[in-house]
Amino acid sequence: MADPDEAGPAIERDLADAIATVLAKHEKSMVTKWVALVESMDADGERGLWTFTSDGVMAWDTVGLLQHGLHIQHAQTLALTHRPEDE
Prior knowledge:
The protein is 53% helix and 16% strand. It has 87 residues and is of the alpha+beta class.
């Protein structure tokens, strides 16, 4: 598995370019912050967890963005599983 300290900066630059390009194409907006949480598996089956962020993102921004995403996913899951007619 790649060393995050060595590969991380190059991956973050590539991700920043890709995210900005895709959002500009679809949203017509400018990216201000982003966080990516990625699980990977190498050829030997070793799993790794990578966290990538845009330049200058503070630790509390990373935690806040990930937590906000978790809350959104949780609410969507509850909306799919909770049916008022079952009460």
